[in-house]
Amino acid sequence: MAKFSTAQIRNIAVLGHGGSGKTTLTEALLFKTGVTNRVGRVEDGTTTADWDPEEQRRGISINLSVIPIEFENLKLNFIDTPGYLDFSGEQISALHVAEAGLLLVDSVAGAEVGTELAWESLNEHKRPRILFINKMERENANFQRVIESLRSALGHSKIIPMQLPIGEAENFRGVISLVTMKAYLGKEGKEAAIPEEMLAEVETARLAMTEAAAETRDDLIVKYLDGQELTPDELRHALHEGVRSGEITPVYCGSALNDIGLERLMQALGRYVPNPTERTIVAQQDADEIELTSDANGPLAATAFKTIIDRYVGRMNYVRIFSGVMHKDTQLINERTHHHYRLANLATPRGKELINVNELVAGDIGVVTKLEDLLTGDTLTTAEQPIRVEHATYPQPLYSVAVTPATQADSAKLGQSLHALLEEDPTLQVQTVAATHQTVLQGMGESHVDIAVRRLETKFGVKVETSIPKVPYQETITKIASAQYRHRKQSGGAGQFAEVHMRVEPLETGKGFEYVSEVFGGSISGVYLPSIEKGVKQVMHQGVIAGYPVVDVKAVVYDGKEHPVDSKDIAFQTAGREVFRHAMQEANPVLLEPIYRVDVTVPDEYMGDVMGDFNTRRGRVQGMEQKNNRTIVHALVPLAEILRYGTDLRSMTQGRGVYAMEFDHFDPLPVYLAETVIAQHKHVEHEE
Ligand SMILES: Nc1nc2c(ncn2[C@@H]2O[C@H](COP(=O)(O)OP(=O)(O)OP(=O)(O)O)[C@@H](O)[C@H]2O)c(=O)[nH]1
Ligand SMILES: [Mg+2]
Description:
Elements: E1 9-16, H1 22-32, H2 53-58, E2 65-71, E3 74-80, H3 88-97, E4 100-106, H4 113-124, E5 129-134, H5 143-154, E6 159-161, E7 163-166, E8 174-177, E9 182-185, E10 190-192, H6 199-214, H7 218-225, H8 232-244, E11 249-253, H9 262-272, E12 281-285, E13 288-292, E14 301-310, E15 314-323, E16 326-327, E17 331-334, E18 340-342, E19 346-350, E20 353-356, E21 359-360, E22 365-369, E23 379-381, E24 388-389, E25 399-405, H10 408-424, E26 429-433, E27 438-443, H11 446-458, E28 464-467, E29 474-476, E30 481-489, E31 496-506, E32 513-517, H12 529-542, E33 553-562, H13 569-586, E34 590-603, H14 607-615, E35 620-627, E36 630-638, H15 645-652, E37 658-668, H16 671-687
Helix pairs in contact: 6-7, 6-8, 12-13
């Protein structure tokens, strides 16, 4: 691979709805630029970008994959991302290190939910973007209809064609540039005159493009409205600025499968995607905030944005250099752990392949290997000038399964393997839920978690069974109650005696536990008060009515009796346990259930269904918001009713709805449901 300066690099996140052709495009570009001598196919699992066995098995991308393309003295670093919503974390990582997004759209389907989400992600990351309408040779391909669907779905009028297709579907044979006013035919993009019959259409489209360009600058709009022609330079420059500022979103078209329009696309990317020096990021140096501009002469700072634990290579970290030059064999530190590293290997990735290099300049993307404990989000820097680059934030998980190791051997390896899974994927989380004694694996959706569970087995050799996690209920009381308990044990050996009188009182939500002694006159020696508390805490951990942790209770020991010989720690622990259990049962104990705040974003036509559906889930709609032609419904819903909400929402909205959810508070569980939970607990207890 040739050497490129920072200014010659373009980092491009390839985004779009699942199946829009992102991986096929990178594959076509590799072949077109002579890197490969045959074109792999997604269906055969033979593409360069989809190298993970699970990707080949499913025929979709799951991980981001870096595909560097050398074109006209530029290094175009394409970061192919998965379109499937469950893998949105990969898209976020890619956008964090890229200067712009290339958003692929299907020529028949037009704007889809994946298109809208990618667009929103581009907005959040404030990145310029270029649209590519792919599959123009497909039956029913319709360029204009797609443009309309994009403008209405994305609520952005400045979605401006820079090209028009010559023919559509089986007649698709090339593109017309509205900038050069020439036609480019076939795979080679052979220059030709614009077909006669298209001249009027081309003129109209060029006018719209020119108007959009003119509107980017006051002086140009005056000239334009004055009926004067913009010079080619003025036009190019205005388009340049318009795309960079995000005011204009240029649209190109072609076919990745038939390799049509790709040359023009790469030229546009080279022209409109900012080079790394044109982007400023904020970083930390000691306590100061500094700005980094991918200056090769600056202090070294590189972010790890993807981690893979490979069976053969070991730990691989994808890094983006945000300042300075990273040289092989240099001493570096991990800014988070202050761990020192000597860089043994430095490589440029191309799919699975690692091409060894001696250095990576500012702005470039590479892979470092075998740097223990380097995690996604960490900054590699120097001990002399340590710098920290802020990393991306990832969404909260939406789908959970309880995992149980299949065998003893699996159980021994489970912790470590789950840890490795989380290191590879920042959108996976693991929780050990005390309330239900379960280990819960959480991810962005069913497929995401399925794949993680499969990886546990295929990659880390750990077999687990999965189940729907139990709802982590809590127990509390709703009124004051008292109880007395005498514990006496006289059978063989040392006797035991303890008597405790206790009152329990409900506490405010979130107050947890209070333990108070109102004992007077020495009916119970001070030394036994901690024993009683220990007994109380055991019951609080185990639960009283359904085996869930007890919260927000005040326990008051107000009297009791002891025996000079038989009273001891264990006796008062037992009495503490039993008196607390009895008092709780007298205090109208209830179950509390976790309530989640759910924000569902759906096309307007599904709003009614979503709200109606929430009513069937004991949900309370809190409000709604409008966003382009989509509605966001905010609701508070019991977790028990939304454990598999993703699957239901997908079928309710034909895959067009998305949601986010977060724990909000606990609420009393309605009696008729509590009875079922209590009965189930009793049944299990009985079984045991
Ligand atoms: N007709 C036609 N099919 C295409 C074109 N590009 C891709 N495809 C097909 O579309 C399907 C999906 O292609 P991919 O490249 O895997 O799409 P993707 O965007 O990477 O999908 P995800 O990785 O799941 O997000 C495959 O069957 C491709 O052969 C094209 O230009 N024309
Ligand atoms: Mg793909």
